[in-house]
Specification:
Helix content: 25-40%
Order of helices and strands: EEHEHEHEHEHEHEE
CATH class: Alpha Beta
Number of strands: 9
Strand content: 25-35%
Distance between the termini: 48 Å
Oligomer: single chain
Number of helices: 6
Strand order of the largest sheet: 5-4-3-6-7-9-8
CATH superfamily: Vaccinia Virus protein VP39
Number of domains: 1
Shape: globular
Structural class: alpha/beta
CATH architecture: 3-Layer(aba) Sandwich
Length: 185
């Protein structure tokens, strides 16, 4: 039995039941477009942390020279690779690693860092590792304002400026809210 697939804008995504996928199908287009808008028209080298199955990676990669997605879930990485193939996106690479480990071992110099951590956030130490890369732009997608705030403070202390923040109410009538924020150096 094949997994269901969903079309968002001009992109097709395979949805494996064991891989995270944004759940409010009515807001997927708006959500994707907001992240694309905040990522900018021409990012060159993109590092997508907590990339999942590529929901944001693949559209951003279409504008970039190269995108590297880092994700700890083996199933999500496999789905990301499948989704890249489904969308003819050849300039994206997905790697299975814990984000903090990947950052400690890395010497990449992206001009855009995109991150979409789980509800627990990325943590202050990982935020510091991200800030030390000195990428000109960070786009942070968060589903938890209480973990976003202390991590955003790390970026601000490292010289970043919060340029834009947008709230997307993924689950109306609940306290859950998605935040898309852009930090620039």
């Amino acid at each position: 039995m094949e997994n269901p697939r969903i079309r968002v804008n001009d992109f097709v995504f395979d949805m494996h039941p064991d891989a995270f996928f944004q759940s409010n199908r009515f807001l997927l287009e708006k959500f994707m477009n907001e992240v694309l808008d905040q990522a900018g028209a021409t990012p060159k080298y993109v590092l997508d942390l907590y990339c999942g199955s590529g929901f944001f990676s693949i559209p951003v990669a279409k504008r970039a020279i190269e995108l590297l997605g880092v994700e700890s879930s083996r199933i999500a990485v496999r789905e990301g690779r499948l989704n890249a193939d489904l969308n003819g996106t050849e300039n994206v690479q997905f790697v299975e690693r814990e984000v903090d480990t990947a950052l400690k071992d890395s010497d990449v110099k992206p001009d855009l860092v995109l991150l979409n951590p789980p509800r627990t956030g990325c943590g202050k130490q990982t935020a510091q590792l991200i800030a030390k890369m000195m990428a000109p732009r960070i786009v942070y997608v968060s589903c938890n304002p209480s973990t976003f705030a202390p991590e955003a403070a790390v970026f601000l202390k490292q010289g970043y400026k919060l340029e834009r923040i947008t709230m997307i109410d993924q689950f109306p009538n609940t306290y859950h809210i998605e935040t898309v924020a852009t930090f620039n150096l």
